[in-house]
Write a structure and sequence with these properties.
Two copies of one chain form a homodimer.
Chain A lengths: L6 H19 L2 E2 H8 L3 H13 L3 E4 L13 E4 L5 E7 L3 E8 L4 E8 L7 H19 L6 E8 L2 E2 L5 E4 L8 E2 H5 L6 E6 H16 L5 E6 L5 E7 L5 E4 L23 H5 L1 H8 L14 H12 L3 H24 L5 E4 L6 H13 L2 H6 L4 E3 L3 H24 L3
The structure holds a DNA duplex (30 and 30 nucleotides).
Protein name (chains A, B): Xylose operon repressor
Pfam family, one (chains A, B): ROK
InterPro entries (chains A, B): ATPase_NBD, ROK, WH-like_DNA-bd_sf, WH_DNA-bd_sf
DNA sequence: GCTTTTTTCTCGACAGTCGAGAAAATAAAT
DNA sequence: ATTTATTTTCTCGACTGTCGAGAAAAAAGC
């Protein structure tokens, strides 16, 4: 449905455009902003004056220039304009970070999670306390925090605040909005971890300037994650994290820790590979956690040509390949990026992946998708967090306008 | 990426809003347009004056009113403002229709397709000749045609003009844009048939006013089609037709007529059901066309409790159910609408569908999706055609503006 | 014929963008 | 030291668009 538009919307949009240019390119002068945005110089004057008045951006005093004429004055976000909290929840640790409005990391600490205690309510209290600690350590007021961006593996509800299913808490729903709402007026954002990887990779690809249409990020590890970033018709980036790890592969894949049979994860997650390698009956309840050393041993065996370990990785690869082929059937063709701890076994998976891919019409028509292994998943997740949180904050600011 | 906006964009948007209100609600008066769109009365005056000047809309002379004050004058699209051609290509016939800018059907004829001749180039010539005939019969100039909307089963390229794969022409690519471009300046639109069903159903749902989030249409027949209609974040409707029928189901499903093994269609398409019912080896090259009478016989057998026919439908149902569950894993939960000739066997499929659905985490979390059988697929396809083509024409008109 | 009622049209105010040229601020030249 | 050239930033008037209020139009009732 279309909606009414007025000139104020135009201003909002163009203000957002200026802020995002500043976000992407760093400090810019009047003329550079005009170049980047395509707006007229006069318009830039009005918009920057307004943003400066509201305390969002400021002139930086450095007038570095060798040129001839009047020196440029650079605009940049006022970094003390507000703060962003980033929380990465993983199976073993929870990492709390504080960054300023400019995206500069100010503080960070981690807390170990006990493997056995998976009580969501208890975690909520620990979580709240940690946020308070983060504020105290940097002497920042709650009101100064503009966004709290949280990530976990698992399935996030469409509203972006509720964790519906996660490897850590299972089906215990975790509503971060409800948890924080009375006290915190910051924007609460919950994202799937691999979604953030996709977001970060998409941002990088756009930076490079090559015509970006879409990409898929797949994270291999104890669980299997998928993040999609696609450019919508309107030109905006659309990122999502479908429930790939627990998409049905084949019932032969056995019992998954989600309780269903035949998920991709039950074949390609670490515990699935382990189960196949040791010929454990496939309806055994899977281990909560597989030490990496254990996986390394199996991989070593497979590389030495042992039969069952090799078979286990191959089966895992086929499950992945089939899953990717199904995903490509339901979306457009796009390049695939593989991350996560499991990439260290990608040599063992690759053959199976290609075999699993080759079976479908989609791949026969379009050819094998481009598959790239990328390292440093944690860094990508954090970058994705910042990208997402800060652009949300930017749009909040432009929406608030002159109130 | 955001993009520059100016006041002209505002005008375009609001003009489009007026046109779409007129399209949805029929003839409207000045005040009614203001109500529908939320725009100020003064704005309506300017926009309608402009549209009237350009010949897109006109005042209808009927002043039906019992009320007291000044009678309302109704605005409506000038039906002779332009024309739209709709072509439905199915396996046995090709239907050509002509409608005016108001969406009123003016002329229609069908041409039988010979089953053997699947030559794409030859078809192109037949197609062109038929379009000419359509023009001649109604004495309309080529320039008066604003859009040619074509539909077929199969896979349509992202540009909306090339047929990449179809049950009729196989992998012979058919580029309608290239075929029509020199002579026709109309907008060329090629859509998957089931996409149009989804579009029509979504339009109906929006009309009803219930908060519409998304839906999936599945067409059962010789081949299996999927159309998705989802509301994007920006509020616009996003319809697509992923390659569902040839998504990998399980290699046990046997050889598909696309040449791959294990497609959903190879299990749930008519020929797949027939093959299973008669215990034909699953790598047999599938029949091009299965008479409906043949299918009816198998169904009758299944309803009488015969083993293999019952098994065949059940297998088909499971393939569908698994496919739907995978689709729901990769998108959000949404209601499912089933159409096509195959709906007459839905009683036989249903059990298997539910069984196939129940296996996945997604369904365990969200519950079984709502499944509705809807008849009159051909009507829905035509409605979808008109909806899509006319709104495209509307946006062309608003984009052209005062040139 | 006058009043009432409803609808449509018009006018001035306001918000936004744009292009052109003025003003500012520096480096190089004289 | 002063002038000139160059580059950047700012400002002004023109243009386009929406909006609210009230005027004008057109019919029904008295």
């Amino acid at each position: 449905m279309l909606t009414k538009t007025s000139t104020e919307v135009v201003r909002q949009q163009n203000t957002a455009l200026v802020l995002s240019a500043l976000r992407r390119k760093g400090a810019l002068s009047h003329t550079e902003i005009a170049e980047q945005t395509g707006l007229a110089s006069a318009t830039i004057s009005v918009i920057t004056a307004e943003l400066e008045r509201s305390g969002t951006i400021a002139k930086t005093e450095q007038h570095v220039q060798g040129g001839r004429g009047r020196p440029r004055v650079l605009f940049a976000q006022r970094r003390d304009c507000g703060y962003v909290i980033v929380v990465r929840i993983s199976s073993d640790i929870v990492q709390y970070s504080l960054a300023d409005y400019g995206g500069v990391l100010l503080d960070r600490f981690e807390e170990a999670r006990s493997h056995d205690a998976g009580d969501a309510a208890a975690f909520g209290q620990v979580f709240l306390a940690a946020l308070e600690r983060l504020l105290q350590r940097s002497r920042i007021e709650k009101e100064g925090v503009l966004a709290v961006s949280i990530s976990s593996k698992g399935l996030v509800a469409g509203d972006g605040a509720r964790l519906l299913w996660s490897p850590v808490f299972g089906r215990q729903e975790l509503d971060f909005s409800k948890l924080l709402r009375p006290d915190w007026r910051a924007r609460i954002m919950l994202s799937n971890e691999t979604l953030l990887v996709a977001q970060a990779l998409a941002a990088k690809a756009e930076e490079k300037g090559d015509a970006f249409k879409g990409l898929a990020a797949i994270s291999l590890g104890h669980s299997i994650g998928l993040g999609l970033a696609r450019r919508g018709r309107s030109g905006e980036l659309d990122v999502s994290a479908p429930n790939f790890g627990h998409m049905l592969h084949a019932s032969s894949a056995g019992l998954c820790r989600c309780g269903a049979y035949g998920c991709i994860e039950a074949a390609a997650g670490f515990y699935g590979i382990l189960r196949a390698a040791f010929e454990v009956p496939s309806d055994t309840i899977p281990a909560k956690f597989v030490p990496l050393a254990e996986m390394d041993k199996i991989a070593a065996g497979a590389r030495q040509g042992q039969r069952m370990p090799g078979y286990a990785f191959r089966q895992a690869g086929i499950a992945l390949g089939n899953g990717i082929s199904r995903m490509l059937s339901l979306y457009e063709p796009m390049p695939i990026y593989i991350t996560g701890q499991g990439t260290r076994y990608f040599d063992l998976l690759q053959k199976g992946v290609e075999e699993g891919l080759a079976q479908s019409l989609q791949v026969r028509l379009e050819g094998l998708p481009e598959i790239t292994v990328v390292g440093d998943e944690q860094r990508l997740v954090f970058d994705g967090h910042l990208d997402r949180a800060l652009s949300a904050v930017d749009s909040d600011i432009t929406a608030a306008g002159h109130s």
